[in-house]
Specification:
The protein is built from six helices and no strands. It is mainly α. The termini are far apart. Belongs to the CDP-alcohol phosphatidyltransferase class-I family.
Length: about 190
């Protein structure tokens, strides 16, 4: 197995997960800034590894497998620590929607791949918009404090709600694309 630069960036993103958790819970005034910086760095590596892979043709099967896993691990971790810190019904609902959709879409992609139809559930533009909104929302929620008079946490809450709605939309799009394959066997019976 050859480790490419994009794969190293993905591995670094996974390694940042426990660092994010530890830094978030440290008892210092600056930990929200540090946790936000760690999450932002992880988000940038997510974009950068894809860009490098496409630009320099540095694709690998291991990297293709690991990249979405790293994304889901980082997002799930940020959601869990955010909900733990700010445990409201809405925050738990949005986090559940996002994590639940990630599990469902991962299972759907795996099943479609087994059928040789993975291309039918490829990432669409709504998924990319969802990811961008989600990353900004989580960065704001990790930061928590007002900045230049702006209620950063409140903005993060609203962006997370928007992200959850985009998550449902993109999940529906995946399901709609896969639906003929999901129901084909039932119709033959």
């Amino acid at each position: 197995m050859r480790l490419t630069i994009p794969t190293w960036l993905t591995l670094a993103r996974i390694a940042l997960i426990p660092v994010l958790v530890v830094v978030y819970y440290l008892d210092y005034r600056w930990t929200n800034i540090a946790a936000t910086a760690i999450f932002a760095l992880a988000s940038i590596t997510d974009w950068l590894d894809g860009w490098i892979a496409r630009r320099y043709q540095q694709f690998s099967r291991f990297g293709a497998f690991l990249d979405p896993v790293a994304d889901k691990l980082m997002v799930s971790t940020a959601l869990v620590i955010t909900v733990q810190h700010h445990h409201t019904v809405w925050m738990a609902l949005w986090a559940s929607v996002i994590i639940g959709r990630e599990i469902a879409v991962s299972a759907l992609r795996e099943w479609m791949a087994e059928l040789g139809l993975r291309g039918k559930v490829a990432v669409a533009m709504v998924g990319k918009v969802k990811t961008t909104v989600q990353m900004i929302a989580l960065g704001f929620l990790l930061y928590r404090e007002p900045l230049w008079g702006m209620p950063i946490f409140l903005i993060g809450e609203w962006l997370l709600a928007a992200s959850a709605l985009l998550t449902l939309w993109s999940g529906f799009e995946y399901l709609r694309a896969a639906w003929p394959s999901l129901t084909a066997e039932d119709e033959k019976s």
